[in-house]
Amino acid sequence: MIPVQAYFVVSAILFIIGVIGAITRRNAIVVFMSIEMMLNAVNLTLIAASSYLHSIDGVMFVFFVMTVAAAEAAVGLAIFLMMYRKKDTIKLDEFNLLKG
Amino acid sequence: MSVTQGIAILPLVILAAFAMGILLINVFSRNPKDEKIGYIALTSMIFVFLSLFSFLGKSGISFGGMISVDIYAIFFYLVFVVIGTLTILASISYVKTTGIQSGEYYALILFAMIGMMLMASSTNLVMLFVSLEMMSIPIYILAGFHRNEARSIESSMKYFLLGAFASGFFLYGLSLIYASTGSTSYQAIARFLSNTERLDLSTLMWIGLAFLSVGFFFKIAAFPFHAWTPDVYEGAPTSVTAYMATGVKAAAFAALVRVFFTAFPLFQHDWTSIMWLIAVLTMIVGNFTALVQKSVKRMLAYSSIAHAGYLLVALVAGNQIGRSAILFYLMAYAFMNIGAFSVLMVMAKKNDYHEDLDSFAGIGFKYPLTAVAMSIFMFSMAGIPPTAGFIGKFYIFSAAVKSHYYWLAIIGVLNSAVSVYYYLRVIVYMYFKEPEGEIPDYRFSVPAVLSIVLAAWGVLQLGILPQNIMAIAQHSIKALM
């Protein structure tokens, strides 16, 4: 029997990997993948908590998170496509018009 | 007294029906670039406004208790109707001159508004997350609506990546709160917390609360999470900027106040000490960076950070006046901010947006009425009587003094004095500076003028006769107690 804390630790590690990836990477799609990893770490937390607490709310929450992540992915990829059409690259450093 | 579940979601149903109807009309219409779609979106605002009358003195819950349409939520519905009406009115000619006209534009505005309304009325963490995303995702798209323009694309990309990153934190916060309290409903969380000794609370709970705040601070553009604001606001189409600056801020504050005062009322002392510092830093960063801006649009973006700081002061004060001042100020901010952006929208031409200070030089003599309206908005943002901004700041700082946060009130007033410099500079440019070249001819369409006039009327109305709205705000905030 794996204790519930182990799941929380794994999901926290996943979340941190996601955060580090999102901050350090310079390619828009890799950054977005890291953000998706953060969301999946949350899903793991929710499912572990749900089974530990014997409550259905967490599992239900996960479905909403997945739906929202899918909608976000659709919009995000469209934005990246728009970036690529404009500049032939999706490197985030190339987009630096706005500052001051 | 309560209304049935069906009536409780009536405003949302109307908005959803209109938004989907607009998408369909856009597909089947022979001329999808027609401006009549803008007027259809405007009609939806009227219907939503009328539907609010079915809530007079009543409240309702729906979606299995996940949303509560009480008078607090209704006040925010009213704010969103004001924001939507002014934005759509100002958009009708702006989208035509800048060439971004399409039905989807209005549909997305309405969809985002459904998210805002749900945020103001959600009483459950699941609904809070879904509504936050329902508001944000359409706005990510709207920010990039100038598809051919590099800075609009950049604005959309930055808002999307940082917004998704922040909602990751927000969501992790929600999941930790759920894991440590065992429920997602605000009431159940409050009940659990009141039955638990503080020392028994797990660390997870505190981390969760911190991450939840990160998500909110991002959306309201508070200090350490404000860096995206100027870039996103500057690059997005001006109409969308106006909508973002007012609507998203109002919705995020609505949800923030409801979460903190209904789910975590016992922790007020813990988070006010942190919030105090954030409020001060937000005001300082916003005001002092706004001082050096050359572009009026970017200056308004920094000023929107500063206004988030003033609102946080009211939140820290936490008393009855402070809480109702948040509601009042958000209403006032909607009028004055959209008004100022409407003036910018009138001045925008295709490929030349006239957003810098120099394009304001001398317009006081060529377009006296526009200049008067712009002056009213600038006076109101600076907090000079007899405008809505003055009354709002007066309530906020008096709330801070009443709760014995003297230093907070002093720092706030000093900041407000600093802000006078950059707001009045616009007025100085309009009246006392010779234009460098010929002032271009601006076209004043009827809806754009209407939005400026309505906004100016709102600013003066709330500034001269604030009692009515303040009474409603005070009544609304009682629904949370």
Give a verbal description of the structure.
The complex is a heterodimer of chains A (100) and B (481). With 100 residues, chain A is mainly alpha-helical. Chain A has helices at residues 4-24, 28-53, 57-87. Chain A starts with a helix and ends in a 13-residue tail after the last helix. In chain A, 32% of the residues are buried. Chain A has a single domain (4-94), classed as Helix Hairpins, CATH 1.10.287. Chain A is built from 3 helices and no strands. By secondary structure, chain B is mostly helical. Chain B has one domain (5-478). In chain B, 75% of the residues lie in helices and 1% in strands. Chain B has 20 helices and 2 strands. Chain B has a two-stranded antiparallel sheet with strand order 1-2. In chain B, 61% of the residues are buried. The model of chain B has no long low-confidence stretch (mean pLDDT 90). Chain A binds chain B through residues 8, 15, 18-19, 22, 28, 31-32, 35, 38-39, 41-42, 45-46, 48-49, 52-53, 55, 57-58, 60-61, 64-65, 68, 71-72, 75-76, 78-80, 82-83, 86-87, 92, 95-100, and chain B through 125-126, 129-130, 133, 137, 140-141, 144, 147-148, 150-151, 153-158, 160-161, 164-165, 168-169, 171-172, 174-176, 178-179, 182-184, 204, 230-231, 234-235, 293-295, 298.
